[in-house]
Amino acid sequence: MSRASALTVLTAAIACLFAIPFSAAHAQAIHFSPNQIMTWPTRSFSGETHYDIVEKSVHWSTKRFKLY
């Protein structure tokens, strides 16, 4: 492998390593309260994510959701 190719591969790898933690941190910044979750509609407008409660229990933290 030439030096230029190795440098290109190394630069791409470093860029990916920085992008992954940023994406993960951004995804974890979104939170839903139990009230918001319980009032989600069972039907959604086109283009929106649709959640449906597929298993219920006594406590809100143990509810399981199915993503459509």
How many domains is the backbone divided into?
A: 2
Structural class: alpha+beta
Number of helices: 2
What's the end-to-end separation, in Å?
A: 45 Å
Strands of the largest sheet, in order across it?
A: 1-2
| Low-confidence residue ranges | none
The SSE order reads HHEE
Q: How large is the radius of gyration?
A: 20 Å
- Sheet with most strands: 2 strands, antiparallel
What is the number of strand segments?
2
Strand coverage percent: 5-15%
- What is the global morphology? rod-shaped
Rounded mean pLDDT score: 63
Q: Give the helix proportion (percent range).
A: 40-55%
Description:
With 68 residues, the chain is an alpha+beta fold. It has two domains: 1-30; 32-68, no CATH class. 46% of the residues lie in helices and 13% in strands. It has two helices and two strands; from the N terminus they run H-H-E-E. It has helices at 3-28, 34-38; strands at 51-55, 64-67. A two-stranded antiparallel ribbon has the order 1-2.
Features:
68 residues; two-stranded antiparallel ribbon
Question: How would you summarize the topology of this molecule?
Answer:
Blueprint: H1 3-28, H2 34-38, E1 51-55, E2 64-67
Antiparallel strand pairs: 1-2
